[in-house]
Write a structure and sequence with these properties.
The protein has 67 residues and is of the alpha+beta class. The chain has one domain. It is 27% helix and 25% strand. The protein has a 3-stranded antiparallel beta sheet, with no helix packed on it. The mean pLDDT is 87.
């Protein structure tokens, strides 16, 4: 990907997650940021929701594996 420091691409998934791609301002590489969310209805469900969000991130990163 050939982008300048100010170029940013943001992709929105069907489940309202976001994937942001931008070039590094200090290194010759591209960076990706993943944002996922879920509603936390009560603090007792925190561990369950955190596990669910981590699984969402894992599934997204698996789609970006380069060979």
């Amino acid at each position: 990907m050939d982008m300048t420091k100010t170029d940013v691409l943001i992709y929105y998934t069907e489940d309202c997650s976001e994937i942001c791609a931008r070039s590094s301002g200090t290194e010759p590489k591209n960076k990706f940021y993943i944002s996922v969310n879920a509603e936390l209805d009560c603090i007792e469900n925190f561990t369950k929701i955190a596990s669910h969000l981590n699984e969402k991130i894992k599934n997204i990163t698996l789609q970006f594996q380069f060979y």
